[in-house]
């Protein structure tokens, strides 16, 4: 059974989230304080973390950084603030996705969680090559010259999405659909921030990317030529 | 040149200095010339009197000497003439040069014996006799008194000179009648006078300069605080309310300063009060909206769970759950709109421009809005000149503007088709949304962008709009430096025109689509 850790200080909302998630067949671990989150996370590692931004004890952004420092688990931030600043801050702290309260539809939250939990790209298996990177889709590993590169699941999904169709230019909208499971979102900040994070891990020089190339005015594509 | 003139007209100080110096120039010139003419008259008069007195005594002396030698022999007379000439041309300390001129006229005396009467006519200093004024010579010949005249005479070996000539008739025994002239050079007098003139000139010049300097100093005292006040007022206008004038004395200027500072203080406190008030209010709205979100989320999920199980409820409860869900939707939209409005009010709304195809976005909006509309019979036609219009704008905001305009049009369409048009130029793009519903009167038109304002309060709120849609759309358009215009006429529907710059933030120079639609008769 899948386990989701919900970190939210609002008892009623947490309980309601529990009801909704349990109804969808997901186990829930409820945590109400930011400073308790990490301990619970270590004792009982979840498959996904739902994290509120404003928390007593320790700020949600900080909690996100701490979890990300030791795990590649998918993190979805819950925010009452839709303002750019907070969203970007959360994404930069390592969150994979975010949802602004109130959610348009609770089913949207479930869908979002399922997308993040899905064993990605089950249809592809084996080895993909992008630039001088080799991606072992089955083993969920990325390596350069035999050295493993640690990526979050979302970053891995993003890289695989680009690598499986080299040469194809993905618009930000297309990537949002492919990687995040969005149908109608226009929030391309998600894509931008994660491309930056991915580049900082896989590129030789993130200022002059060779793996994840920008196609001006359109979107991104996988670098075809070998790096350096 | 023009720029100098401009500076001159702009600067009170230079204007005051200029006019003061100009007026002083007149005064100095007048007094200077009066002074000079008086001085020169005086000098000339004194000189004349001295010279004439001396001439009279010389002539008298000569007359007396000749009387004494009357009847003596020629050599004695000649000696006397020589003596007289020498003594007459002796110069005193303050005199420059004195020449003498003797000229016999009239009948020649008949001397004793058979000697010819000697002629003592002579001129010292190589005087050119021909340059003597004949008018004076006639007067001297005819008169018994000393005659005088100012004249310019020539010397054979020297420059011409201004002189005073005094002359008298003299009789020399055994020779005849003579004109005797004493020629006084005026060089000294003229030198004195030109010295006076030049000192007057330079004194006047120095005076003018000093007057200018004093005026400048005085004007500066007045102008400086005025300039200072202007500078402070300007900074004040630019929003630096901490600026104050310096008050250092107790004169009128300091009164101005004090009054200005009082005004500034009062303004500053008023503004601060208003700023605080509006900040508190905006903060409050924003906080309320945020605080409402968490319970609303819980409510949303709870209602969804209840709604999901409505099949097992009896019909009233099932319907109630539907209403609950619908009203929560509406509540949420209202909350979103309120939050957005509070962002605009707090001026924290941020533009996040990306490049996208406006035509595709509009088509998508039309599809979505029509799918959500309860009345699916209304047709929406889109009319665009070009296949694609790439613009750089905040796609989320543009989408919201389009959704707002389209739902507004659908609300008021009265089941008649809606026309959407897109026209792009090099610098801006216009999007028109036209409905053929009941339209608006001018009073409604002027309030159509007001918050929570509804054209017809009795109309059913079919679509459950928040009443903030158009006002947010206007703010969204203006955030792009664009504009949203509305047109409407009773019975002719309404036309909303969005004009956006191709690149968000640049200026729009016109309206590719005019708010007054082409199909509307111009002469109504």
Write the layout of secondary structure elements.
The complex is a heterodimer of chains A (228) and B (524).
Chain A: E1 3-7, H1 11-23, E2 27-31, H2 34-43, E3 48-52, H3 60-70, E4 75-79, H4 84-92, E5 97-100, H5 106-117, E6 127-130, E7 133-136, E8 141-144, E9 147-149, H6 153-163, E10 170-171, H7 172-180, H8 189-202, E11 212-215, E12 219-222
Parallel strand pairs in A: 1-2, 1-3, 3-4, 4-5
Antiparallel strand pairs in A: 6-7, 7-8, 8-9, 10-12, 11-12
Chain B: H1 2-10, H2 12-68, H3 74-88, E1 98-108, E2 122-123, E3 127-128, H4 134-142, E4 147-155, E5 161-172, E6 176-185, H5 187-237, H6 252-308, H7 315-345, E7 354-357, H8 358-372, E8 380-384, E9 390-393, H9 395-412, E10 418-424, E11 428-435, H10 442-447, H11 469-479, E12 483-489, E13 493-501
Parallel strand pairs in B: 8-10
Antiparallel strand pairs in B: 1-2, 1-6, 3-4, 4-5, 5-6, 7-9, 10-11, 11-13, 12-13
How many domain modules of chain B?
3
Largest sheet of chain A: 5 strands, parallel
Based on DSSP secondary structure assignment, what is the total number of beta strands of chain A? Answer: 12
Quaternary structure: heterodimer
Q: What is the succession of H and E elements of chain A? A: EHEHEHEHEHEEEEHEHHEE
Q: What is the CATH T-level topology of the largest domain in chain A? A: Rossmann fold
Radius of gyration of chain A: 18 Å
User: Any idea what the CATH architecture of the largest domain in chain A is?
Assistant: 3-Layer(aba) Sandwich
Structural class of chain A comes to: alpha/beta
Indicate the percent of residues in helices of chain B.
40-55%
Name the shape of chain A in a single word.
globular
The ordered string of helix (H) and strand (E) elements of chain B is: HHHEEEHEEEHHHEHEEHEEHHEE
CATH class of the largest domain in chain B: Alpha Beta
Please count the helical segments of chain B: 11
- Give the end-to-end Cα distance of chain A, rounded to a whole number of Å: 44 Å
Uncertain regions spanning at least 5 consecutive residues of chain B? none
Query: Rg of chain B from C-alpha positions?
Result: 56 Å
Any guess at the CATH architecture of the largest domain in chain B?
A: 2-Layer Sandwich
| Number of individual domains of chain A | 2
Mean pLDDT over the full residue set of chain A: 84
């Amino acid at each position: 059974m899948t386990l989701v850790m919900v970190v939210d200080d609002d008892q009623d909302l947490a309980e309601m989230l529990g009801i909704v998630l349990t109804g969808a067949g997901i186990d829930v671990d409820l945590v109400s304080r930011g400073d308790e989150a990490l301990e619970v996370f270590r004792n009982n590692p979840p498959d996904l973390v739902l994290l509120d931004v404003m928390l007593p004890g320790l700020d949600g952004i900080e909690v996100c950084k701490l979890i990300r420092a030791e795990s590649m688990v998918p993190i979805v931030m819950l925010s009452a603030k839709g303002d750019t600043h907070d969203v970007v801050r959360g994404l930069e702290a390592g969150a994979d996705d975010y949802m602004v309260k109130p959610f348009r539809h609770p089913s949207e939250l479930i869908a979002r969680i399922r997308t993040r939990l899905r064993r990605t790209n089950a249809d592809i298996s084996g080895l993909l090559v992008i630039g001088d990177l080799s991606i072992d889709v089955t083993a969920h590993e990325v390596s350069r010259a035999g050295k493993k590169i640690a990526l979050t699941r979302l970053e891995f999904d993003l890289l695989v999405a680009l690598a499986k169709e080299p040469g194809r230019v993905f618009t930000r909208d297309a990537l949002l659909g492919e990687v995040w499971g969005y149908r109608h979102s226009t929030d391309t900040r998600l894509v931008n921030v994660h491309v930056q994070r991915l580049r900082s891990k896989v590129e030789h020089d993130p200022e002059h990317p060779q793996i994840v190339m920008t196609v001006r005015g359109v979107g991104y594509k996988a670098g075809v030529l070998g790096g350096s | 040149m023009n720029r100098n003139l401009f500076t001159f007209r702009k600067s009170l100080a230079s204007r005051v200095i200029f006019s003061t110096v100009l007026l002083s120039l007149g005064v100095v010139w007048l007094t200077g010339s009066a002074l000079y003419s008086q001085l020169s008259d005086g000098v000339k008069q004194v000189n004349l009197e001295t010279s004439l007195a001396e001439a009279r005594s010389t002539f008298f002396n000569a007359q007396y000497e000749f009387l004494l030698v009357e009847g003596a022999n020629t050599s004695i007379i000649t000696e006397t003439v020589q003596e007289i000439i020498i003594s007459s041309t002796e110069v005193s300390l303050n005199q420059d040069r004195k020449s003498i001129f003797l000229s016999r006229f009239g009948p020649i005396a008949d001397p004793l014996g058979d000697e010819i009467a000697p002629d003592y006519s002579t001129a010292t200093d190589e005087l050119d006799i021909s340059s003597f004024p004949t008018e004076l010579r006639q007067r001297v010949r005819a008169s018994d008194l000393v005659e005088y005249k100012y004249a310019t005479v020539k010397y054979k070996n020297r420059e011409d000179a201004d002189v005073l000539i005094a002359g008298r008739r003299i009789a020399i025994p055994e020779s005849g009648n003579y004109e005797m002239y004493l020629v006084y050079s005026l060089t000294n007098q003229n030198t004195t006078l030109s010295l006076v003139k030049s000192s007057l000139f330079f004194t006047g010049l120095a005076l003018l300069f000093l007057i200018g300097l004093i005026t400048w100093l005085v004007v500066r005292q007045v102008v400086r605080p005025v300039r200072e006040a202007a500078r402070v007022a300007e900074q004040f206008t630019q929003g630096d309310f901490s600026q104050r004038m310096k008050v250092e004395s107790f004169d009128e200027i300091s009164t101005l300063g004090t009054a200005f500072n009082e005004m500034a203080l009062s303004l500053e406190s008023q503004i601060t009060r208003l700023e605080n008030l509006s900040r508190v209010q905006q903060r409050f709205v924003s906080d309320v909206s945020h605080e409402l979100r968490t319970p609303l989320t819980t409510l949303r999920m709870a209602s969804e769970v209840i709604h999901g199980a409505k099949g097992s409820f009896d019909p009233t409860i099932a319907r109630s759950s539907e209403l609950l869900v619908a009203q929560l939707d509406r509540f949420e939209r209202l909350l979103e709109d309120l939050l957005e409005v509070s962002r605009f009010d707090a001026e924290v709304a941020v533009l996040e421009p990306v490049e996208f195809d406006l035509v595709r976005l509009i088509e998508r909006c039309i599809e979505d809005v029509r799918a959500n509309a309860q009345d699916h019979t209304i047709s929406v036609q889109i009319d665009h000149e070009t296949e694609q219009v790439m613009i750089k704008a905040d796609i989320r905001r543009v989408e919201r503007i389009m959704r707002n305009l389209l739902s507004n049009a659908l609300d008021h369409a009265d089941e008649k088709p809606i026309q959407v048009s897109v026209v792009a130029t090099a610098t801006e793009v216009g999007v028109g949304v036209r409905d053929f519903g009941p339209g608006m009167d001018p009073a409604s038109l002027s309030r159509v962008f007001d918050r929570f304002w509804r054209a017809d309060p009795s109309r059913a709120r079919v679509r459950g709009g928040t009443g903030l849609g158009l006002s947010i759309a206007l703010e969204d358009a203006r955030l792009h430096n664009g504009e949203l215009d509305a047109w409407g006429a009773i019975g002719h529907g309404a036309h909303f025109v969005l004009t956006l710059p191709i690149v968000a933030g640049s200026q729009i120079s016109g309206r590719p689509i005019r708010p007054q639609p082409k199909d509307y008769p111009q002469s109504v």
